[in-house]
Amino acid sequence: MATPRLEINLEKIAHNAQVLSELYGSKQISICAVTKVVCSDLNIAQALVSSGITMIADSKVANLKKMKEDGIKASFLLIGTPIYSQAAEIVKWADISNNSEVVVIEELDKQARIAGTTHKIILMIEMGDLREGIMPESIDDVVENILKFENIDLVGIGTNLACFGGVQPSQQKMDILSRFAKNIEQKFELSLQYISGGNSANYNWFNSISDKGRVDQLRIGESIFLGVETVNRDPIPGLHNDAFSLFAEITELKTKPSLPYGTKGQNALGQKVHFKDMGNIPRAILGIGLQDVFVPGLKPKTDITILGAGSDHIIINPKKTNLRISDNVEFSLNYAALLSAMTSPYVEKVIEPSYEYSGIL
User: Domains in the chain, ordered, with CATH?
Assistant: First the structure.
């Protein structure tokens, strides 16, 4: 088979999605599957829908367009902060978008009016992680402005945690979000459909509560694809952690010194690197590099050591694994590595079990 390649097991992904849907559903919380890490691959999107997922989220309008045009039967949420200049495309391809800027919402209203439609939005509120969201003290003013737009439908509020600042979801923060929802509904006499409490980092909070308050939606990506929660990256019981495997081929295999020799400066990446003297050691070159994958996010599945990487190669110490030229080395991936490998056009994606999305659901 071609290398480098990323093998993708749809059955394991679908299993994880179904288990998580049932788990969170036990406390009346729906999950929205976030497909940005897999670039909204149509095979994966269909596997999610087949497992019972009814809403899919992505940060790229182009990915929502791809799924919608190819007949994936789901509602589509844009979770990336909407770009002002893409307002017309957002209205066309996203059923809902997460928003935090009134001027952008005003442009969405304008484009929705031109298109003869109404665009739904979830208002994001800053609760400490310092990514997207309005400050809590401005909620009333912002909601009042939003309600003036005739082609905008405010359907929910949400928050984002454990992404930029690593701030964990907690019972206190979810209680505050619930109070925000209650106050908005009472003051403005409206009903919010979605109280979107966070993402895969909410797993530990979920397991610790008896009362989830008003939170009724989570945006889940990493837990579905890698089977972990995202505060400590601990595996979630009952989920597969190996739905993705990366394979790279050995292109050179020799015994060489462990220390470079000669006058040293920066390497090709602008780094000054240091090495431990281990004498002569076996060294192998793999036909994949930083242009293809986030190398620090790879974990070998055999007893080898990654010594370093360049733009188009990884150098390993194969130790006593009896590897030969043309052999494949297999790696598991963390979220950053999966994101880069899925995005790289140089990594072939191989679906297992063998399946190809036909557009007929």
Answer: 10-226 (3.20.20.10), 244-352 (2.40.30)
